[in-house]
Amino acid sequence: MTTKVAIFGVGLIGGSLALCLKGKPGITVIGHSPRPGSLSRMIERGVVDAATLSMEEAALDADFIFLCVPVGNLEEYLEELYAMPLKPGCIITDVGSTKASVAARARSFSLPGVHFIGGHPMAGSERSGVDAASTLLFENAYYVLTPSPDVPEDAYSRLEKLLAYTRAQIVRIDPVMHDQIVGAISHLPHIIAVALVNQVCDYNDNNELYRTLAAGGFRDITRIASSDPLIWRDILLSNREVLLSLLRDWNAEIGNFIGLLEGQDGEGIKQAFEKANLFRGELPERRKGAITSLFDLYIDVPDTPGIIGQIATELGVRHINLSNMQIIESREDVPGVLRLSFRQETDMERAKEHLHSLGYSVYV
Ligand SMILES: NC(=O)c1ccc[n+]([C@@H]2O[C@H](COP(=O)([O-])OP(=O)(O)OC[C@H]3O[C@@H](n4cnc5c(N)ncnc54)[C@H](O)[C@@H]3O)[C@@H](O)[C@H]2O)c1
Ligand SMILES: O=C(O)C(=O)C[C@]1(C(=O)O)C=C[C@@H](O)C=C1
User: Fold this and answer.
1) What is the pTM of this model?
2) Whether the predicted interface score ipTM is above 0.85
3) DSSP symbols for 11-31
4) Is the shortest distance between the CB of 12 and ligand 2 below 6 Å?
5) What would the pLDDT profile of 326-363 be if each residue is shown by its tens digit?
6) What is the pLDDT of residues 1-44, one digit of tens each?
7) Extents of the domains making up the chain
8) What's the CATH number for 295-363?
9) Which residue from 179, 187, 163, 185 is spatially nearest to 104, judged by alpha carbons?
10) Which residue's CA is minimally distant from atom 9 of ligand 2?
């Protein structure tokens, strides 16, 4: 028996889900977009088994429908879907970054045997579109599901079982609580990143050295400022009340720093960094596969030609499995830092020992 999975909006998230599900036993993935250009792109990238401009064709007989469109379009899709003769047992889910509004809207519809279960993979990127999709995007990430109390357990379990192909860890959370928490750890950081970049952009209008000197710290904290403006417009407006309250708390937090500086309170500044260091150091190490792996090593390396190849070869001949390497802020005249990432702690330990024995400065 075939399981038909329809994906509406095959961009970064929809395309990554499609890649996780396509080719799995008994699963057929159908992509839907109202735009011919998006349709040909998803076919060219090979993320779906078939694609259609027709919403009805995609939804017909579907066992699962994933809404992977911008948050501002979710409710109109729900409305249209619930007006169609969907297959009894069909599960509609979404991947939107806010959950309360879509959950409330879904409660106003009903179709026999059809259930809505809100979802939100806590993984993503500042990139968008199907070209940025990856099978590894959700690996090791948390994937939030927000079923309303009337969703039968067997429907929830069927979705959970399908999502096992993403290799994400499923967590069940109330939609209102989700928006409160994700507002603080995802939406507020995006606002802060954009505000900071725009502040520096204005200074840079009078002195281009701002852009020239922007280095690791600025880049680390502002990567997400490059996120898609329309996707984020919708997210922020959908979580408006929560964000207004968080921004007031943020003002107080910044006001605290103003007070510390005005009072030349060195002890207070030190304590603020210590508190942040402690909390950040305790963040779970479970991170997404596409971008980082679980165990990282840092090595000081002279920036000479061939050095990276030499290190990779040293590890390769010893069958030490490396999953990623990256040079951090390397320039011609200074030593660079090379980050080596491993999936297994034992590989990291063996690499540390071996590179140390070769005379490299290695640290975890
Ligand atoms: N980007 C992230 O990091 C991230 C992470 C988790 C969840 N999300 C959520 O996933 C959803 C999709 O975001 P994305 O990052 O994949 O964006 P994306 O731009 O990569 O993909 C969006 C897709 O929806 C299509 N689309 C846009 N407007 C449409 C419309 N009016 N009707 C039909 N299709 C339309 C686009 O063609 C595209 O295929 C959003 O709801 C977002 O909140 C994003
Ligand atoms: O890693 C990123 O670039 C992201 O912005 C991913 C991120 C996040 O803020 O963590 C962004 C939006 C999502 O809804 C979930 C995850």
Assistant:
1) 0.85
2) yes
3) SHHHHHHHHHHTTSTTEEEEE
4) no
5) 776 544 444 578 888 887 888 899 999 999 899 888 88
6) 899 999 999 999 999 999 999 999 999 999 999 999 999 999 99
7) 3-174, 178-257, 295-363
8) 3.30.70.260
9) 179
10) 186
